[in-house]
């Protein structure tokens, strides 16, 4: 189903992005990896250097792409930054990547999709469906991603654009992103890893493959998933 498709994955150098890239390549896709750490990308991924917090770099990066079938907005930043006591510089950093970067990449990708339409897949979070006890501003960015996903779908349908729009909303996934989120609470992260079987990047990659391989005319809008050990 993905044979010959060109797929751009943001944040493809590690974690979920890397797992998706490797699985989609195995299923016939040509994968472009847009990220800052292009030196970490395996040779089979076509590297495109970009800092997603900088609109000018996004503009330059997409200017290097001639054609595109699928965009996976995977890159994200997670800080434990409450509304009452959080660091505004962390709020800004999360907003720039999680919300503005995702939106601008989507806008640019639409101009590269074929006339028959492409597919945009946003990697969101369960924090876009409920607010956890901590990480309030991160949850706000993921609620925004949920709204953007629905707004984009409605806008495209309104102009007769056949591009499909989907999202995946995982609970805890054991990736390097957790190390940033739990910064200063390393013991809590260690205990979480010891007591909870978390989702893996491969779990999300398989979910992405399922969504992107759906038959023509089928649009899977959002998949919510947690490990069996996660209560909320």
Number of helices: 7
Global outline = globular
Strand order of the largest sheet: 3-2-1-4-5-6-7
Helix- and strand-based class? alpha/beta
Features:
232 residues, alpha/beta, Rossmann fold, 7-stranded parallel sheet
Compose a concise summary of this entry.
The protein is α/β, with parallel strands linked by helices.
Detailed description of the structure:
With 232 residues, the chain is α/β, with parallel strands linked by helices. It has a single domain, classed as Rossmann fold, CATH 3.40.50.720. The protein is built from seven helices and seven strands, in the order βαββαβαβαβαααβ. It has a seven-stranded parallel beta sheet, with helices on both faces. The longest helix is centred in the middle third of the chain and has 23 residues. It is globular.
What is this structure's SSE topology?
Layout: E1 6-10, H1 15-26, E2 30-35, E3 46-49, H2 55-62, E4 70-73, H3 88-110, E5 119-123, H4 136-158, E6 164-170, H5 176-181, H6 186-195, H7 201-212, E7 222-225
Helix pairs in contact: 1-7, 2-3, 3-4
